[in-house]
Amino acid sequence: MATTIYVLNGPNLNLLGTREPETYGRATLGDVETMCREAGKRHGLAIAFHQSNHEGALVDWIQEAAAKRAAGIVINPAGYTHTSIAILDALLAGSLPVIEVHISNVHAREDFRRHSYVSRAAKAVICGFGINGYSLAIDGLAAMLTPSKG
Ligand code: DQA
To answer: What class is the 4-145 domain?
Structure first.
């Protein structure tokens, strides 16, 4: 059985902690990684954790996750959520279960943030829970991978 979840983070998420803290909070990307590894451990799943400011790097990791038959992908595509057909296509090509995460509630912000290309490839979308959304996404994905628990 596949035992690795890829957690992918898009542009500017390397700045978590100092970037618009009133919107994204004070936790750093390192804190997010620690939280994801702890959530993975609870479910016996390893975490491959990555961040890039470059669209192609994200596409490469999505392809890698599929090639390595990962259990699934948790992705916060950040600004690429609203623009990237390339990331959508990579997720559709891989056909792994995908959970889309946003730290902020994108629906309570500017209109352009209300549309996500990535959502078309996602089994579920989590937004507005701050960085706890990553942990919730891993819990939800793990439950999806365990048929008896739905
Ligand atoms: C974000 C929301 C996006 O609209 C924004 O471009 C980001 C972060 C979030 O986590 O709330 O960079 O994905």
So the answer is: alpha beta
